Amino acid sequence: MEYRNNNLYVEKVNTNFLSKKIKTPFYCYSLSKLKNNIKEFKKNFYEINPLICFSVKSNNNLNILRIIGRFGLGADVVSKGELLRALKAGINPNKIVFSGVGKTLDEINFALQKKILLINAESENEVRNIESIAKKKNKKVNIGLRLNPNIDAQTLKKISTGRNKDKFGISEKDFIRLLKKYNNSQNLNIKCLSVHIGSQILDYKPYLKMMNVIDGIIKKTNFKFEYIDLGGGMGIEYNKNSKKLNYKKYRLIIKKFLRRHKVKIIFEPGRSIVGNTGILISKVIYLKSSGNKNFVIMDAAMNDFMRPALYGSKHQIVPAKKNRTIIKKIHDFVGPICETTDIFLSMPSYQKIKENDTMAICDVGAYGIVLASNYNLRTKPAEILINKSNIKIISKKENLKKII
Questions:
Q1: Does domain 2-29+275-403 fall into CATH 3.50.50.60?
Q2: Which of 119, 291, 359, 395 is the most exposed place for a label (fewest CB within 10 A)?
């Protein structure tokens, strides 16, 4: 995404041109950026040669999953639906891990049937259910145990997953107990220690703490894991001033760990693969002045893009056409939903805007369309993939009559 002669382009396509062809709001992704992100992630961890399982919950568009699969990536899924979608996209079952705290008996059954790489269990009751189902099927199933390392990743509280007060994983004490209890099970093969401490992490130090905890458990138990699943959580730059994750230091920490333990590393990246590939294109419906601020009311709303309302996250909003006239007044970019939380961003000043202007909400490729809903009985937006000058609709805008 870049400006050319003050016009915003996605690859070789002018976003103003796009907004005239396709009904706003809609998601727009760059194929080139997606490919580059995958290549860059692989490059960062080339010496480690990990199994990279894309986090399907971050973006489950079938076309995007097919592209990711063609690059040799696997999938990290958290529901039967995501597993079905990953399989339909052609992702190898032997590269799929099933995570999540609340897998139903039906989901466990289905995962066993599809012979996926691992089911990462998050409680003793879940382990017991997996063993029971495997016993009935006379099978031995590969599982991982998800550790809760009690580490605060210093990210948004609502996306922190590694503290003992979070619902995820098993405490160190229970983890060691379950290893001993189920190590000789006739129907379970404990192959993996899994861990995930949060999302949008921009500092390598929480990862260092995490690796030290894992190292300590292996020393205490002397257990030979085949895989160590380190989850994902690598953050991206949502604004120009944000900190960058030091991948080199993280890589060196893992390399040091691998000198002591011969295991295969699994990663579950989502945001770092797709986050900055997408924008949400919207038009200004109304401008409304109220006291010391201007409300910019757009046709995109919190049902189309939930992150600001749900997490308080901030995404840059840029015009499809730049001008030099700056209005020194607070601008609140809001949607038409009947909720005060339907606000995307507040800016102390902004360029002059007119009704029907096209705007772009940036970095929405992860946790964008997947969190969309029909709240206020609004239709979910279309998704568009740009490949140089080619425009492909990869998900149609919903039909209101069908919803009704």
A1: no
A2: 291
DSSP code for 17:
H
Residue 28 catalytic?
Answer: no
Residue 230 near residue 265, CB atoms below 8 Å = yes
Looking at domain 31-273, its CATH architecture is Alpha-Beta Barrel (3.20)
Q: What is the pTM assigned to this prediction?
A: 0.93
CA distances from 63 to 36, 88, 89, 371 (A): 17, 10, 7, 18
Task: List the domain boundaries for the chain.
Answer: 2-29+275-403, 31-273
Instruction: Tell me if residue 332 falls in helix, strand or coil.
Output: strand
Average pLDDT of span 196-215: 90
* Cα–Cα distance measured from residue 335 to residue 300, given in angstroms and rounded to the nearest whole number: 6
Show the beta-strand stretches assigned E in 56-102: 74-77, 96-98
Which band of pLDDT confidence, cut at 50, 70 and 90, is reported for residue 159? Answer: very low
| Integer Cα distance of 335 and 332 in angstroms | 10
Contact in structure between 200 and 159 (CB atoms under 8 Å): yes
How many H helices and E strands in the chain? 12, 22
User: Which of 204, 195, 199 has the alpha carbon at shortest distance from 155?
Assistant: 199
Positive or negative, the Cα torsion across 237, 24, 6, 33? Answer: positive
CA dihedral 144, 150, 153, 159 (to 10 degrees): 70
Contacts of 264 (CB under 8 A, 6+ apart): 50, 51, 226, 227, 228
The residue with tokens 């964008």 is 368
Report the relative pairing of strands 293-298 and 317-319 from DSSP bridges.
unpaired
d(Cα 383, Cα 393) in Å, to the nearest integer? Answer: 6
Q: Which of 28, 192, 338, 362 is catalytic?
A: 338
